Amino acid sequence: MQHVEVECDPSLSSPKKEIVTKLVSKVFYKYKIETYEVSIIFAGDKLLTKLKKEFFKKNQLTDVIAFRLNNYNEPNIDGEIYISLPRAEENSKCYKEPYSKEVLRLIIHGCLHLIGFDDNTKKEKEKMTDLENKNLENFDHENIFEE
User: Fold this and answer.
1) Once rounded to an integer, what is the mean pLDDT over residues 57-70?
2) Nearest alpha-carbon partner for 75 in 113, 31, 109
3) Model pTM?
4) Domain 2-136: which CATH number of 3.30.1330.10, 3.90.76.10, 3.40.390.30, 3.20.20.80
């Protein structure tokens, strides 16, 4: 089964489900993951800060949090990805990238975490950024938001 659930805080503009699903499918296909059930929740800073505190014991803003709900040695993925749209917007300004492209980058980042990639060291962060860039290649980032 391949299923992507997309939810968004009603006060925020939601990325289109079909685009999110297409990107998640592209990333998982690249890593030969055929079965997945993933929820992607677009929210504000308040929810992500609360999750960061509760599960990682850190009181700080964050742009993406991914939770693998099943064991990493299983071939299928069951997980949740939380993305702060305000952080994505802030990142886009810092990195001088389109907001929509930054949102897509965070979706990819969350998927990579669910697959098992980490970004705890400088080398791991560089590897993940490289993988994000490769997954963004040839992926249209225009018009990803609901009208």
Assistant:
1) 95
2) 31
3) 0.96
4) 3.40.390.30
